[in-house]
Structures are given as structure tokens and as C-alpha cells.
Write the C-alpha cells for this entry.
Amino acid sequence: MIHEKLQELCPVYAAGALDGEELRELEKHLKSGCPICQQQIRECSELMAVIAQTLPSLEPSAGLKSRVMAQIEKDSPGSSLVEFKTTTQISGRKRPSKALTWLPWACALAAGAALGVSLWNLSNLKRELAGAQSQLNQQQDQIQQIQNQLEKEKGVTAFLISPEVRVTMLAGTPKSPRAAGKILWNPRERKALFYASNLPSPPSGKTYQLWVIAQNKPFDAGTFSVDASGNGFLEIDSLSEADKAQKFAVTLEPAGGVPQPTGEMHLLGSL
Amino acid sequence: MSSPHTTISMPDQDLIRQVAQRNKTAFNSLYDRYCQLVLSLAWRVLSERQEAEDVVQEVFLQVWREAASYDQKRGSLCAWITTITRSRAIDKLRSRKSRRIYDPASEDILELDEQLPDTRILQENLDNRILLRGAFASLAKEQRIAIEMAYYEGMSQTEIAEVLKEPLGTIKTRIRSGLIKLKELIGPSLGN
């Protein structure tokens, strides 16, 4: 089989669907060390991992982490047991056992002082109640956060599946050769989502600014910050000159942004 | 020994290196980072919680034992763990005496928001996941079905063609063009 044909099979192989003679031929070809096909399979495997990340999250059961850790302990002979708290474990739940350990001492020391023990228990209960209340408040905040996030996800999904949405890739300039960007935009609705990656951290007092180039003039599309990995995100509700856009660019500007670009260009992409 | 705080924010490559050196704190952080992905994928393949949790145990034991053999040149840690998970889950699926027959009409593949997302995921990861979900949802339905039948049901291209009553070449094209489009949509985020 010619190389181009084998290369076409790489995505099917990464999805786990290749079978029969084609599977045998591609595996033989991969063993021969073809760097192009190996790279293609690497990329497709990353995409399959991406697809897995779109699955709805499932909360693990409370005992799962302990079971995994117990296996690791068994697999590491002679090592001391390390305590790993499960993410769902509530600190307050451990108190009764602590109290039980203390109780004989407390009883011995405070024999005949039942009132003291009662007061101690009362204060303990109050502490637990306060802890539970604080946890409840925290969970309510989390529910609100999830609801807001769901609304946001629904909006973005609706935006992305519109057939009018266009995608323009931005490449790093010599200032940031490793950087990349992508803008998904709807020329009619003037909405856009912009993603950047591998941008260098801006110096103090500077920020990145996105520009729409239309009729050879730059129009401000907003400023954005980047995280420690150089990834940035910008949601634009009203993209200037969206229907006439020719190019998109990112420059480094004074904090707060400027009406016209003054700084060095880090990303550029043409339609 | 690293403190839990330093391993929580540690990049994947450093984390797996620490795990390879038998650092249990690092392993703890790695588990927290990937447990939900592993469980969700195993559950999607097996549709049975207990079996899916068994897969989680097997996957993390394998990661613990084989961390030293992980080679970042071959792909991201996420892709490595995902590949192990899918492979173990599909093995379990195939070992069942009777297999569930995949019925595309019954699969609500567009219902991507049917369960609540994990609140522990950092905001930037959420933003990224929104993009990923949106990108996958924007593929043609036929492309998504072909990819899902292969990836989650462990079906070969020949089996998919038979079930969907489509030519084999069409199935190959759907998988290939679906992945190519996905790559175009999420290119800059890939492997992050």
C-alpha cells in the first residue's frame, strides 16, 4: 500500500476502528518507523483524548480513592501508610473518632464533673453545626457557580454550531514564534470568541490587545490577560467592523489598552 | 517529598516524573487531576458504575507501576492516560458475554450538559472544556456517531459499516474528516 493511503488510515487507527489487512499493514508500516504516520497518530490520539474530555463529569464514589491508594500501598512493600483524604471527605466527619479516643481520658479526669463534659459536648456540637452551616453555604455558592457555568456553556455551544461562524487562525510573529491564536466569529451577529496560547507573560504595566483590521485600518476588539502557560481568552459581544474584517492581530500595549496600536505585534492572521 | 500544594499546581510532565520516583503526594495530585476523566470515559464505555470504578483502579495502578515508561515525546500525559483507560474499558466490554447493540438513534450525543460539571476544575480549564465540547458538538452528526461507535463501543470500521448499512469507505471518511475538522477547531489548545 502506498504511503498516502496508509497515512489516511491513521485517524481510523487512532479511533480504534481499523481492522483486517489494513490494520496489519499500518502496524507494520509504523514499526518500520515512519515519522509522518507516527506524528499523525500522536495528533489523532490527542484529539481522541479531547473527545473524552467532552464527556459529562461523573463524581467518583467516596471510597474509590481509598481503594486506589490501598492498592498503591500494597504495591509499595515496606512503605509507611500515607493518609490521603478523599475530595468528598468532610473534615467534621472525623471528629467523632477523635472524641472517642479522648473520651476515656476525659471521663477519667473529669469523673464526677459530668456538667463539664456536657458543656464540652455542647461546644463540640456547636462547632460541628457551624462547620456544617459553612459547608452548606459553600455548596450553595458552588451550585450557583455551576448554574452560571452551564448558562455560559449553552451560549457558547449555540454560538459554535451556527453555520455562520467562521474560524481564523493567528500565527505567532517573530516576537512570539511559539504563540498561536484562533478567533471564532459570526460576522452578522458580531460576536466572537478568541483563544491564544503560548504567549509570553506581558511585562508589568502591559497587556495584550486584539485588533480587527478592516479596510486596512485597525479597530480595537478588547484586551486580555494570559495565564502562567501563556493561554488567553476573550469573549467579544460586539466585534467592530466584523463584516469587513480582513485580518486579526494581537499587539502588546499599555495596561488598559489604547485606541490605536502602538506596540509590537505578537499574533497575526488573515482571512 | 513535595507538599500537596506544590504538586496540585505542578505541570503534568513534572508530576508524572515525581510519580515515577514513587512520590505518593504527586500520585495523589495526579489522581485528583485525572480521576473524573478516567471514570467518565470508563463509564461511557461500560454504562455500569462498578465496572467503571474497577477500571479506575486498574488504570491508576498501571500508571503507578509504569510511570517511568511514559515518554512525553509520544504524546501528552492526558492522551496516555486516556489511551490506557479506553483500552482497559473496551477489554472489559468485550469480555462480557453479551454486548450492548449500539443504536445511534437512542444515543443522546448532543446532550453534552446532562450532568453538572466538576466545580473543582479551574476557570481556565472550564473555558477550555467549553471550547472542546462546542467543537465536538459542531461536527456533523454522522461524523460524531462514527467516531463514538469506534471509540466508546470498541467497534471496528467493518462493524460500524454493517450496523449503519453504509459503505466501508464512507465510515473511514467520516472518522477522518471528523478528526480533521476537530483539529482545525481546537488546534492551538491541542496537547495543552
Q: What stands out?
A: DSSP finds nine helices and no strands in chain B. Chain B touches chain A through 85 residues (CB under 8 Å). Confidence is low (pLDDT under 50) at residues 106-124 of chain B. Residues 48 and 115 of chain B are 16 Å apart (CA to CA).
